Hints:
By secondary structure, the protein is mainly alpha-helical.
Amino acid sequence: MRNRSKxxxxxxxxxxxxxxxxxxxxxxxxxxxxxxxxxxxFKQRRIGKNKQxxxxxxxxxxxxxxxxxxxxxxxxxxxxxxxPRITRSGRFLRSTSLDELPQLWNILRGxxxxxxxxxxxxxxxxxxxxxxxxRFEVLPGLTGLAQVRGRRSLGxxxxxxxxxxxxxxxxxxxxxxxxxKTVVVVIKGSGIYGREAENWRAYRDRVKAQDGQKR
Length: 215
């Protein structure tokens, strides 16, 4: 019953939001098209519920690169909006989180939910400790508990703890609370850049180093 009501809420809200935001999406698409070469929509393979892969959609905010040019294992983390990989339109889209709006279509398709753990890239699967596997029991979200607690300023393990906490607590009013907090976070623009905390790559390297010392 809880999952059915959540799905009904997702379909209703995402459908209405897509209709209302269509003019804004069209404007953003034109801006991206004239601002830099490449597709308007960026597609990326992500891991969703039950570890099933799907294609997440985002408005492109970076220069167009082929999959062969993107090394997810060693990709340098974006720490500010002056990164040369970010386009002019991308700076604004990232600062307002408008680049995430195409994921409303992912929600309508059933790949995602409005609230849930953020979908991870396949390379992150190997650095998720077993105690956090429950994050895959629900659909990934457009926003989530980790996003309202600090977004990228949270360390990797802190993000995973927030994800699993959400899985055990989620419900209609809890989701509404997270959505309202998300609005505040987006308006403030907090947590978009700056990874002073340990990200997943740094965590992976630390664990590998510790394993090497034990041997």
